[in-house]
Amino acid sequence: MMGPPPRAAGSGVRDEISPLRRVIVHRPGLEMERLTPDTRERFLFDEVLWLDRARSQHEEFSALLRREGAEVLELTDLLTEVLDVPEARAELLDGALDEWVLGSIAAQDLREALADLPSAQLVTVLIAGITIGELQQLGVQPRSIVLQRLGEQDLVLDPLPNHLFTRDSSMWVGDVAAVSPMRHTARRRESLHLETLYRRHPLFTGPDGPRRVLAPETSKAGVGTVEGGDVMVLSESTVAVGLSERTTAVGAEHLAAGLLDAGVVDRVIALALPQRRSMMHLDTVTTVVDEESMVRYGPLGQVESYVIEKVGGRLLSRAHPADEMDQVLARGMGVPSLRVITAPLDPYSAAREQWDDSCNLLALAPGKVVAYERAAATNDHLRSLGIEVLELDGDELGRGRGGPRCMTCPVLRA
Ligand SMILES: NC(=O)NCCC[C@H](N)C(=O)O
């Protein structure tokens, strides 16, 4: 049996393609079993999942990442470990048990019931949620009005099935970790988990941790939302951010201000994407595959962009018309021109493959990517251009609309 790859020192992500060394992923668990025809839309899934198959596909994915030299950090393990730190446990419970969601009485009763639960059990509650029936098994009687109005199978605490997509709730830009103020309520607790990990887990408070954690309070963020799928580290100097269904202009400016203030990049490029679910994030329509190339969903074409920089201590943004997008991106990547890779498909096939994440590729190294097997035409086209494509059987994993890039949060590329 192959042992784990040797632990690489440091942390940080300075581009999209340097060899992937350390990455956070989430193995799907009980939270997926809370997805039903009635709840799936609220939880942002297009279908219900076959958990056993999803787990084995995810295990394949993690095994592939390990084989390729990455240290794979499991979110559940990290959270279980951090729950042993008293301040982290208190913070995570505070975040989960919101009086404005549960009501004051239930929040107080749940806190008492969960406070001393073993970490391995508590982590399941935090990720998979809890029903009235399960609460009763923990000895909590539904005393509050809110709980008494619910049935035994009803959820008191919602599950977080989208933890599978670790890309979105936080991101690393250089040695700065930014926690995302998420667009949808269904995903907001995910960010609280990541914030506590970055601030409290020994792995991240030590020398391999971030130099700075940017974490706007979601309640204060208002319309200023950002999701990691919209953020791409083009080079040491430049980050691209999609203005999308999820990331707003306010959010992008806020992120830019934080990154420029931390001195981690010189420039943030905001790209005005169409606002629709099929293109929910920038990485849903385009991803970087090597030093000069991005795969792109053809119908996206070029869109208007805005370059945000700091000049004389002031933030400035400069607008560029759509037909300059590729030049703006090339400059961000530090290359003379950008190679845009679009599979030669009729509009129907192109739309179908893109819906199944054909453009959501995870680069393991320059010119070497992981893709879903079902994106056959796009994968063949990439290969014909010399890109190495490692295929993953991910039909269950993709049911929430996310591909290999969405399922990873790189912590170290080197
Ligand atoms: N970066 C990504 O595109 N992530 C996929 C997120 C899918 C998730 N079900 C969502 O709607 O937020």
Return residue spans where pLDDT drops below 50 for at least 5 consecutive residues. none
- The overall pLDDT, averaged over residues, is 95
Strand content: 15-25%
Helix content bin: 25-40%
What ligand molecules are bound, each kind once?
A: citrulline
- Shape, please? globular
Query: What is the structural class?
Result: alpha/beta
Cα-based radius of gyration, to the nearest Å: 21 Å
Largest pleated sheet: 5 strands, mixed
Number of contiguous helices: 17
Q: How do the strands of the widest beta sheet line up side by side?
A: 8-9-10-13-14
Measure the end-to-end span. Answer: 25 Å
Number of strand elements: 19
EC number: 3.5.3.6
Keywords: Hydrolase
Organism: Brachybacterium epidermidis
Family: Belongs to the arginine deiminase family.
Can you put this structure into words, describing what you see?
There is one protein chain. This protein is of the alpha/beta class. It has 17 helices and 19 strands. The protein has helices spanning 51-67, 75-82, 86-96, 99-102, 104-114, 119-128, 132-137, 145-148, 166-169, 185-200, 202-205, 218-221, 249-262, 282-285, 325-333, 347-355, 376-384; strands at residues 20-25, 71-74, 130-131, 155-157, 170-173, 176-179, 212-214, 231-233, 238-243, 267-272, 286-290, 293-296, 305-311, 314-320, 339-341, 362-365, 368-372, 388-392, 409-413. The strands form six sheets. It has a five-stranded mixed beta sheet with strand order 8-9-10-13-14, with helices on both faces. A three-stranded mixed beta sheet has the order 2-1-19. The chain has a three-stranded mixed beta sheet with strand order 5-6-7, sandwiched between helices. Strand 8 and strand 9 (238-243) form a beta hairpin. Helix 3 packs antiparallel against helix 10 (185-200). The chain is globular. Residues 44-45, 162, 165, 167-168, 187, 229, 280-281, 283-284, 400-402, 406 line the site of citrulline.
